[in-house]
Design a protein that fits this description.
Layout lengths: L6 E7 L7 H11 L4 E7 L5 H10 L4 E4 L13 E2 L1 H6 L4 E5 L2 E5 L2 H11 L8 E5 L3 H12 L4 E6 L2 H15 L4 E5 L11 E5 L17 H4 L2 E6 L8 H8 L3 E3 L2 H16 L5 H15 L6
Helix pairs in contact: 1-9, 1-10, 4-9, 5-6, 9-10
Length: 291
C-alpha cells in the first residue's frame, strides 16, 4: 500500500514508456516487503540536470538512467563511481548526503548474468563485435576481469583503436586487439567466447547478423548477444547451428536492475530471488529461453 512512508525510485529517459525496469523493481519490492514504488519519468534532452535536482529535492531514493541521458547526467552529480568514470556512462543514481552519486550497473550486470550461466571471462579470449557505447563498456569489463585478449571487430577500425588506447590508459591493460570487421577470417584458428554488442538483429530487423559467414561461427564456443528482443537472434541461431552455446541479453537487464536495487537499499538479493524475478520478466516481455 502506498502511504506517507513509501519510497520512490524510477528511471529517466526519452523515450521511456517501453521500459521493463518497473517489472524488475516492483517485483523485488513486493517479494522483499519493501514499501517502495518504481515509476518511469520521461525527461527530455537538455533537462536532465533539472530532473536530477528535482528528484533530490523530492527525496527520491534512487534513479536509473537510460538512453540518451547516460553521459549528460554525469554533469549533474555529486560524485561518480570509478567504474562509471572509466566507462564514461552512468545508469544508476544513488542518494548520498551530498546529492546523487552515479554508478554503472550495466557491466556488473552483464558479468553477473554471464556467471549465472556458467560463462567465465577470466583468462578467456573474446571476440567483441561492435564499437558503440555498449561495446566500449564491454571492452572495459573484459580488461577489468582479466580477459587475456579481446579481438574487437568493427567496420571502422579507427574507432576500435581509440577504444583500445583508452582502455589501456585507464586500466593499464593492453588486451584489446583492433580489427576491421571484414578481417574476421584472419582470427587465429581456435574457439572463442563472442559478445555481440551491435544493434544488428534488434527487433524488427531480426533476420540479420553482423557477420553471416558460417566459418566465423565455427570459431565460437559460446555466443552472448546483448539484445534480448528477439530472444533468439540471427547471431544466436548461427552460433547454435555450429554447435555453440548461445544466450540473449535479458539476464543482463535483470542483473543491472538487481544491482541498482541493492545499491539503493543496502541489501544483497539472493540468486533464488533473482531467478523468481527473471521468470516474471520473461512473462512480461513474452520472451522464452530456447536451447
Amino acid at each position: 500500500m502506498i502511504d506517507g512512508h513509501t519510497r520512490v525510485c524510477g528511471v529517466i529517459g526519452s523515450p521511456v514508456e517501453h521500459t521493463m525496469s518497473p517489472a524488475i523493481h516492483n517485483a523485488l519490492a513486493k517479494k522483499l516487503s519493501h514499501n517502495l514504488v518504481y515509476v518511469p519519468f520521461h525527461v527530455k534532452t537538455g533537462e536532465v540536470a533539472e530532473a536530477v535536482k528535482g528528484a533530490c529535492a523530492l527525496n527520491v531514493l534512487g534513479l536509473n538512467v537510460t538512453v540518451p541521458h547516460k553521459k549528460e547526467v554525469m554533469e549533474a552529480l555529486a560524485g561518480i563511481d570509478p567504474l562509471a568514470e572509466k566507462i564514461g556512462a552512468v545508469n544508476t543514481l544513488v542518494r548520498t548526503a551530498e546529492g546523487f552519486k552515479g554508478f554503472n550497473t550495466d557491466m556488473p550486470g552483464l558479468y553477473r548474468a554471464m556467471c549465472s550461466e556458467g560463462i567465465r571471462l577470466e583468462g578467456e579470449e573474446v571476440i567483441l563485435l561492435g564499437a558503440g557505447g555498449a561495446a566500449r563498456a564491454v571492452a572495459f569489463l573484459c580488461a577489468e576481469k582479466g580477459v587475456s585478449k579481446v579481438y574487437m571487430l568493427n567496420r571502422s577500425v579507427e574507432k576500435v583503436r581509440a577504444i583500445a588506447r583508452e582502455v589501456e590508459e585507464k586500466t593499464g591493460k593492453d588486451c584489446i586487439c583492433p580489427m576491421a570487421l571484414s578481417d574476421y577470417p584472419g582470427l587465429p584458428d581456435k574457439k572463442y567466447l563472442a559478445i555481440q554488442a551491435t544493434s544488428v538483429g534488434l527487433f524488427p530487423d531480426t533476420d540479420k547478423a553482423v557477420i553471416e559467414d558460417e566459418a566465423f561461427y565455427r570459431k565460437i564456443h559460446t555466443g552472448y548477444d546483448l539484445i534480448y528482443k528477439p530472444s533468439n537472434t540471427r547471431f544466436m541461431q548461427m552460433v547454435r547451428a555450429q554447435k555453440g552455446e548461445a544466450y540473449h541479453g535479458l539476464k543482463m537487464l535483470l542483473y543491472q536492475g538487481i544491482i541498482a536495487y541493492e545499491l539503493w537499499n543496502g541489501i544483497s538479493v539472493s540468486e533464488d530471488l533473482a531467478e523468481e524475478v527473471y521468470e516474471i520478466l520473461k512473462e512480461k516481455t513474452g520472451i522464452r529461453d530456447e536451447g
